[in-house]
Amino acid sequence: MAYETIIGLEVHAQLKTRAKIFCSCSTEFGGPPNGHTCPVCLGMPGVLPVLNREVVNFVLKTGLALHCRINPFSRFARKNYFYPDLPKGYQISQYEHPLCEAGFLHIDLDGEQKRIGITRIHMEEDAGKNIHGEGSEPFSYVDLNRTGVPLMEIVSEPDMRSPREAAAYMRKLRTIVRYLDVCDGNMEQGSLRCDANVSLRRVGESAFGVRTELKNMNSFKHVEKALDYEVRRQARILDEGGSTVQETRLWDAERGVTVSMRGKEEAHDYRYFPDPDLVPLHVDAAWIDEIRATLPELPDEKMARFMTAYGLPRYDAEVLTVSRELSDYFEACNSVAQAPKVVSNWIMGDLLRECKGEDEALAQCPVNPDMLARMIQMIEQGTISGKIAKTVFGEMVKTGKTPEVIVKEKNLVQVTDEGTIAELVDRVIADHPEQVVQYRDGKEKVFGFLVGQVMKASRGKANPAVVNKLLKERL
Amino acid sequence: MKITGKEVAYVAHLARLALSDEEIEQFTGQLDAILAYVDKLNELDTEDVEPTAHVIPMGNVVREDAVDTGLPIEEVLANAPGTQDRFFRVPRII
Amino acid sequence: MDLFRWTIQEASAAFREGRCIPAELMASVNSRIEAVEDKIHAYVSVAGDAAVQQAASLSAGNEASPLWGVPIALKDNLATRGMRTTCSSKILESFCPPYDATVVSRLRGAGALFSGKTNLDEFAMGSSTETSYKGTTRNPWDLTRIPGGSSGGSAAAVAADACVAALGSDTGGSIRQPAAHCGIVGLKPTYGRVSRFGLVAFASSLEQIGPLTKDVTDAAILLKAIAGHDHRDSTSVNVPVPDYPSLLNGDVQDMRIGVPQEYLQVGVQREVREAIRNALDLLGAAGASIREISLPHTDYAVSTYYILATAEASSNLARYDGVKYGYRAEPVEDLLDMYRRSRAEGFGPEVKRRIMLGTYALSSGYYDAYYRKAQQVRTLIMRDFEAAFDVCDVLLAPTCPTTAFRIGEKVNDPLQMYLSDIYTISVNLAGIPGISIPCGFDGQGLPIGLQILGKHFDEATVLNAAYAYEQRTDWHGQRPAL
Ligand SMILES: [Zn+2]
Fold this sequence. Notes:
The complex is a heterotrimer of chains A (475), B (94) and C (482). With 475 residues, chain A is of the alpha+beta class. Chain A has helices at residues 53-65, 163-180, 220-239, 285-292, 299-310, 314-320, 324-337, 340-355, 359-364, 369-380, 386-399, 403-409, 418-431, 433-440, 446-457, 464-474, and strands at residues 3-14, 51-52, 69-70, 73-74, 77-80, 90-93, 100-109, 112-125, 129-132, 139-143, 150-156, 192-202, 212-215, 247-252, 257-260, 273-274, 281-282. Chain A folds into three domains: 3-290, no CATH class; 299-409, no CATH class; 418-474, Arc Repressor Mutant, subunit A (Orthogonal Bundle). Chain B has three helices and three strands; from the N terminus they run ααβαββ. Chain B starts with a helix and ends with a strand. Chains in contact: A-B, A-C, B-C. Chains B and C meet through α1, α2 and β3 of B and α10, α11, α12, α13 and α14 of C. The structure holds zinc ion.
């Protein structure tokens, strides 16, 4: 049977504010347990929340970047439930009147663009952390440092039709929140978390099938894997004539399966109501304009500009704009080197390999854009060959020395002097009479071998163009 | 009846209150009487009436994103019935 | 001379003129507490000698503050740093906050002294202090009767001269009703006038902290000291605070006084109705113009209030779970057992009843029928008052339909208990200011309260109307024989 996969994602992004959403405690990660707490985030009797303006600004930024409608009236609601990591017995969230609604973003799959709808973006506070005792220890331990750290919840429309699309959506969302500098996007550390609603329906049907909610996918790889598994699981049930049940399932990364939470889950009756301790938010045009003015160039716009302004292929432009750090690196490098495609090749090849694609590693990489640009200039000017440049690059990474110093110290300057190269060419011809005969008999491939021998003899420093020319003349 | 014993038991669970059978019965009677009284609100047509959550019209009360030092750990834990090291200690969750 | 009988102005004048020092007054109040506390049980905890020592070491410098050296009693739902704050509940019996309520720090800053923490209905849920885990406070005028509630301890302490003045909180009448029953002055400010930071929440959208005092001038002084914007309370309103005491002139010439006809109908004790009529005559004779007005949705206020207040309470009281502070049942089987038993054993029956009602009103399927409906009726009740204030400067009504009832009389009938708040709760729903002042006694010698209501943030006019009445009568000077 052919099924269509329907996926919607709920993403929680931890906002990079200095202080918590409703009190002035630090949001810093990894402090001593309960070291970033105060009467407000501890939920002590009689204390009251006051909203951190920056949280609103960050969500507005995201809402604008995702083409959302900014609601002129929004407010906070209480979501009531009991859990030890929730000190007030309710979470302050938004319910009926979220800050942003009805937006979208574009994902790129094999060169095709697809628009994914954003249902809403709202603000809420994070819960604390429960640590469970070891083995049969009858206790759990509560650390409330994370309680009150600001989150935004981004809810998508059920617009994704495959796990790959869902993963692409997550990556795009991560790229955008990082461009906006509102979230560090680290899934492993939990600053970006994702729950998915997954259902299947027969191709051609318009009604949605029964959906499961999938949780605990804490890396990009796992999002796709977990969804793949879940889609196959549901398809198998439907193929066997069964029906899926609405439930919450957890991704078990070790076993590579999703597991039902049935039985462990409470009937949800959150008793939302407007929080009487907080007043409504009225976001007017002036506030929106103020935020709009702070928006950076976003990945879609930047990619388009990279293609038109630098003549880069779509693929290059997409890779280079995946993060603000990387695109900044490219532009800084190219402003000196003035050779967009060459710069792009070096970045997408050696540099990204070196940094394993991580922006932190890029920031700490000893090869700064200026060094790479000057090395590329040395290639363009014929000072070093492309091959030697690989060595130079490796040395720059290892030692942090400038390309000029490395080339000088290691005596890597390209040899272009015809006299010097002619001597090497002559020696190679003399040492390989067999191959010379083969070439003269029309075996053109042997030419490459002979060039290689000359390069080897020059320890890679001979100018390949000159080697070619002289070898041809002599053969 | 506006409310049944079963509903009262469900609400008691939501509110995390351990109630005896007698208490459930007593609350059912009392809540039923109160809800019957409250029912008079339905005499009013409120179809086009905006609900009031805040009596004083105000909005946009915000603070700057500035960090203050929190409470010393001794004061954080001073009132807690169960602690260990720097943690609140509770019966095992799972 | 009995120093403890002083008002704030009298004490302040005595200090200024060097006739007395704060430690003497504090000691006098303490001895009075010792003398009457067995009878009335107004306090949950007293500061005792520590307050006298504090009085002795009170830093000079702000003697100009009218509260410098004045012993004030605090309702025990106001957070006091280093002093237990119990809300008269088992669940908070040993809770000691690491912070002061904003009103408390303002009073400290003004040089006030604290005689102790006063009794209340558990978590301010009640009209009689009978729901207190700490025992019932008795009415100083008749020890077999309730002092009113929930600020019954504060009201009884003021009436019995066991403090110079007190703070209470008013969610549905909890300052005005006990003030009326104890024959003193009690003021509920406009919602947002006084910071709620540090007031242990019962129903956040309804409650305000306010003064309970021996006369209107003291209420003006104490309100001035605690009012004003506080950045720690998002619902506190940033409007200027007038110098209330200096605005008291007793002039009601041409003041437009409205009398809500719904507040004088059946169910009102005859003597209460007469006392209100007399008060109207008196103010009319003083130059005010009196007119009948209508607040047509009055009948719906109790229903509205008990849905909204209990819904908010069910959420506000969820934090008492035995994890971070407060009572924890032990031993327990598991986490759920800990929650359910800690809360069942820690809360009294009235608190549980309200948590149950509020949880039900918010629960799935009932929100629109109860909570949303009540919010809509709240709008109608507010509009009633808006219309009334289009043609009136203040409204005048009884504070309660009857004088203080007997201890135990209504304790088993929650609905009857709720209905005794009928004239005070609309004021909280509308967020307007209201004062109760003494206006006579019934045949049994029990005080009657006169309620004056004003527009949002117009406490000055409310206080002045009350002052005008007080100037022309001497009810406020009468004290119970204890
Ligand atoms: Zn905090």
